[in-house]
């Protein structure tokens, strides 16, 4: 029997490696990585992490077969030619249908494939099922109730059956913006070693159609387990204390703020979510981090990450094509060029281009909010996220981008995360240095978010007014007269034309 591990299962403690068998198969599939213009730092990180993992396993005494091939099919051909009829064991891949596809590929090559539970996630499909049917079947998913259930089941941040500190959620303490004289805490850098540099040279040469900064620069992405653990320690020591307070803030010139920057390592399997959660709780218990930061961080991993994975499982394949608002505009070129006078978008796109990363609020309230109110096709936006972000995989971008960010399906929320310029101005300092006027909705230089926002509400009135959760917004809609609506529509059309011409 051989344990087959994929590029997002790079952990020496995964269940199947705990058996007596010491044979491991890893396949690098190259053609797959050329199907889209993926960020070169993402490809470098992934292939370098796989090769480091191969070496790490060999050091631990495993017999590793490492196949470099054009496709998984070609890799399996090569493998089964050398080891005919082998029995493979694979942790369940999170991507929709992948386990079944791999099983068929193995069986047509006269091998067998057993797909076992993927213990790199904290909750199993069975746990989700039992939550879904607790107190009768649920007809919609609610992250907060799932999260509370997970807190109870794991005992994380629980005090004798009650939530630590008396509240389940401290989000009302987590909406601050840093003062002008705030200095952001340091960010770790991982000097690329010889192997990473070799991979990077090869990536640049082979995938010359890539999008994103081709240099490694101050490469902040762990490619080994050791680096992932260092990144976790660094976060807990320097950034966790202020993580909560500034979680939703955006500051010009600052790409990381106090975010953990751990998603790429966790999604590769280099770091287990429970390791990050427990390190944060330890910091709280030893008085080194406040509860609002620690609870906020725990909720992201124990609540949101697990929740998104299960919602994806349940909602695919429909979610992969969902577009309930029938949005069909092409994604503006500025998402690729970064060329726009809009300060907030220019910053956020620039962050993605530079390092394959933008933090949560830039993703949700700048990048996807703008695409949503602009009318962009949600599946094209999903593809853009998938290409550009170091932590992006279909299972995690799809619920976040198509569900949460684009409201292309209502399985995740009953109202869209749509906002005007007000939100951006409240949570960032971008508007101060932006040539667009944040408080103007129509006329020359009016901030594009405003007219697009009202136009979006008007355009989707039938669906959104009926949700019952947009009452306040529609009370503002109802106060606008025909003259205002004509001006709003004109400005929204003008903004779309400017964006199409690359002149926004
Ligand atoms: C439109 C959009 C697209 C996104 N695309 C991705 C993606 O491709 N890959 C990805 O891992 N996350 C994605 N997220 C979720 C979240 O924004 C990122 O996980 C987070 O910004 C990563 O940065 P960090 O590690 O510094 O996170 P922190 O802000 O420090 O959060 C801690 C951890 O919580 C987890 N987490 C938090 N929120 C989510 C969430 N909604 N879904 C899944 N995990 C979460 C991540 O593992 C993250 O590392 C997306 C969110 C939105 C709104």
From TrEMBL:
Acidic residues bias (residue ranges): 159-174
Bilayer-crossing regions: none
Stretch list, region Disordered: 156-186
InterPro entries in the record: Crypto/Photolyase_FAD-like_sf, PhrB-like, Rossmann-like_a/b/a_fold, UV-DNA_repair_photolyase
PANTHER family: SLR1343 PROTEIN
Protein name: Cryptochrome/photolyase family protein
Organism, scientific name: Salinirubrum litoreum
């Amino acid at each position: 029997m051989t344990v087959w591990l994929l590029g997002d299962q790079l952990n020496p403690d995964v269940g199947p490696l705990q058996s007596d068998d010491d044979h491991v198969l890893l396949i690098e599939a190259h053609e797959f990585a050329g199907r889209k213009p993926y960020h070169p730092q993402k490809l470098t990180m992934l292939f370098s992490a796989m090769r480091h993992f191969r070496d790490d396993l060999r050091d631990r005494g495993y017999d590793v077969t490492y196949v470099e091939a054009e496709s998984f099919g070609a890799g399996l051909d090569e493998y089964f030619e050398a080891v005919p009829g082998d029995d493979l064991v694979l942790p369940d891949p999170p991507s929709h249908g992948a386990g079944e596809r791999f099983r068929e590929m193995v069986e047509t090559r006269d091998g067998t494939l057993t797909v076992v539970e993927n213990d790199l996630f904290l909750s199993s499909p069975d746990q989700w099922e039992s939550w879904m049917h607790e107190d009768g079947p649920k007809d919609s998913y609610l992250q907060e109730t799932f999260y509370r259930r997970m807190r109870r089941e794991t005992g994380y941040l629980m005090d004798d059956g009650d939530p630590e500190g008396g509240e389940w959620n401290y989000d009302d303490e987590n909406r601050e913006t840093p003062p002008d004289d705030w200095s952001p805490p340091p960010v770790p850098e991982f000097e690329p070693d010889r192997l990473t540099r070799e991979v990077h040279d090869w990536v640049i040469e082979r995938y010359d159609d890539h999008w994103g900064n081709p240099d490694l620069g101050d490469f902040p992405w762990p490619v080994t387990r050791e680096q992932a653990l260092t990144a976790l320690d660094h976060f807990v020591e320097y950034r966790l204390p202020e993580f909560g307070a500034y979680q939703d803030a955006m500051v010009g010139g600052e790409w990381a703020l106090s975010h953990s920057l751990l998603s790429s390592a966790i999604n590769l399997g280099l770091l287990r979510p429970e390791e990050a959660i427990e390190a944060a709780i330890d910091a709280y218990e030893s008085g080194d981090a406040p509860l609002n930061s620690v609870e906020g961080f725990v909720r992201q991993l124990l609540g949101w990450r697990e929740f998104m994975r299960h919602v994806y499982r349940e909602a695919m394949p429909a979610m992969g094509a969902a577009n309930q608002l029938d949005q069909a505009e092409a994604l503006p070129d500025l998402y690729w060029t970064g060329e726009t006078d809009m300060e907030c978008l220019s910053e956020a796109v620039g962050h993605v281009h530079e390092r394959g990363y933008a933090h949560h609020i830039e993703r949700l309230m700048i990048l996807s909010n703008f695409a949503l109110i602009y009318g962009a096709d949600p599946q094209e936006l999903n593809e853009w996220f998938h290409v550009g972000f170091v932590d992006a995989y279909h299972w995690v971008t799809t619920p976040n981008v198509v569900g949460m960010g684009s409201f292309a399906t209502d399985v995740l929320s009953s109202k869209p995360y749509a906002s005007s310029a007000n939100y951006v101005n409240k949570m960032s300092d971008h508007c101060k240095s932006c040539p667009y006027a944040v408080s103007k909705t129509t006329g020359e230089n009016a901030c594009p978010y405003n007219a697009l926002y009202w136009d979006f509400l008007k355009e989707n009135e039938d669906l959104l007014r009926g949700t019952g959760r947009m009452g306040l917004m529609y009370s503002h809609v109802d106060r606008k007269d025909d003259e205002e609506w004509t001006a709003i529509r004109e400005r929204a059309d003008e903004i779309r034309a400017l964006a199409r011409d690359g002149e926004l």
